[in-house]
Amino acid sequence: MDRLLVLVRHGQSEWNLKNLFTGWRDPGLTEQGVAEAHRAAAQLKAAGLSFDVAFTSALSRAQRTLDIILDDMGLTGLPVIRDQALNERDYGDLTGLNKDDARAKWGEEQVHLWRRSYDIAPPGGESLKDTVARTLPYYVSEILPRVLRGERVLVAAHGNSLRSIVMVLERLGPDGIVKRELATGVPIVYRLAADSTVAERLDLAA
Predict the structure, then answer these.
(1) Smallest Cα–Cα separation from 7: which of 175, 145, 167?
(2) Does the pLDDT at position 175 exceed 90?
């Protein structure tokens, strides 16, 4: 039984390029982001992987990344489940602001706390802890059971929603997960043991 789970952060978005806090806003992919999605598909094909079902968020940058990957892999008929539980962290009042402008307004230290602490939320937004509380139950109830049944599962989502899943898979604490970076468009391949722990992990680095 394969118990395959692959996580892919969406390709570079227009707001990633502009250094803006994105959250639940819905900018599209840049040309580089599209290229990253094509490259992810090529890496997955080269690794001999295929999938039975895919999950993504309610946001178009993740959905388009997934569409490109499935199209390139010849899997356009694959069942795709979309849910806002996999959406990016909501940055609240920071959403749409340039990160440098936010530092000028609130100070380097405060913005660093909002971005890199585990449980301090920006005004009107979510902390990483809040994102974990939203994403992790969905992973446990909807995604993990399919993997444990032997389905090969692909998840295309966002840096913070995926880190919520990585936190559990890699047994990282609050300090460890805030330091764990996920590059855009780089698949992380997990094979799980029957008890849902990670038997093998492979980053398909660029």
Answers:
(1) 167
(2) no
* 173 Cβ neighbours under 8 A, 6+ residues apart: none
pTM: 0.94
Active site residues: 10, 88
Nearest to 69 by CA among 84, 85, 54: 54
Give SS3 for 2: coil
What the chain holds in terms of domains, given with CATH numbers, is 14-47+67-155+170-203 (3.40.50.1240)
Instruction: Name 155's Cβ contacts closer than 8 Å, sequence gap at least 6.
Output: 5, 6, 7, 8, 54, 55, 56, 86, 143, 162, 165
For 175, other C-beta atoms within 10 Å of its C-beta total 9
Q: pLDDT band for position 204 (50/70/90)?
A: confident
Q: What is the mean pLDDT of residues 129-137?
A: 96
Q: Per the annotation, does 125 bind a ligand?
A: no
124 labeled part of a ligand binding site: no
C-alpha 100/C-alpha 12 separation (Å) is: 19
Of 18-27, 52-61, 129-138, where does mean pLDDT reach its minimum? 18-27
87 annotated to bind ligand: no
Between CA 82 and CA 89, with CA 85 as vertex, the angle to 5 degrees is 120
Averaged confidence pLDDT in the chain: 94
